Amino acid sequence: MPERTIKYYFGRLNLIAVFDDKREFLFKALKTNRVLQYRGYNWGFFDIVELESELGNLFHGFLVKYKPEFSEEVANPNTHSLEDQEIDNFVVAKARFFLHIKSGIITYHPVGNIISRQTFVERFCKLFEFSLDNMFVNAEIQSIEEDYKIFEVIRSFKKIKRVHIYLHPSNPSNRDRWKRTDERLKNLGASSYYENYEADEEIGSLNVVEDEEINSKISMADDGYGKADVTGEVDGELTTVSTSDNPITTQAPNDEFEARNVLDKLVIKLKDIFDRFINEN
Q1: What pLDDT, on the 0 to 100 scale, is given for residue 279?
Q2: CA-based angle 187:279:277, to the nearest 5?
Q3: How far apart are the C-alpha atoms of 94 and 112, rounded to whole Å?
Q4: Do residue 222 and residue 236 come from a single domain?
Q5: Same structural domain, 231 and 253
Q6: pLDDT digit string (tens) for 32-64?
Q7: Domain extent for 168
């Protein structure tokens, strides 16, 4: 019988916060008893545990969407009638995740339209901030992309009209291709960075394909430290390509399997991501 697998996405949890011990900081946020309420549903972190791996320790758990009060139709065999039964804290969906403590890389699986990829990112970050009283904490999950994919699309543009770049300083390490940008942000004490370019109407196109500095910043966003959007012309129509368009994904066992079995599969792809940095440093 073929193994039942589901798709996991990879991103990076970027934090703007002050803390002495990252592990304790993450543990406090994830182990919270707080519940985020949103449009009649509750959201919480559940079954948080720490797992060891050859790549370093990770936190494992579920982001759970549940209904505080739920009425379910049941059959009563004694009266042969259909009745409504009230259920407290009915689980609508749960999305499993693994968070690598040192690097902040997070891998998770969405649940159809109930907990979509975007919904997971938004609720996870809001709940993370809420669990810490929203006190000087900003949490964002940026997608980690397949290496160089965005540059393939950019090179296909006949004209490039706009470039928007948003970056965070790295933690813990950088790559040669964007090391200078990263170190400059850190030396400035910047928590985030924005950059926008618009093509001159007379020239008609931005000359960014061979621009080393802009390409290095796009690569930094590609590695999960921000986001970059490039708008260009293809066959006479404007198209926007983003560093969130080609996320790294992999298949892993579904939620019927123990966390350790799932992690053993995910570690293979995690190694590939870490190799981006090891091979250049």
Answers
A1: 55
A2: 40
A3: 11
A4: yes
A5: no
A6: 999 999 999 999 999 999 999 999 999 999 999
A7: 149-242
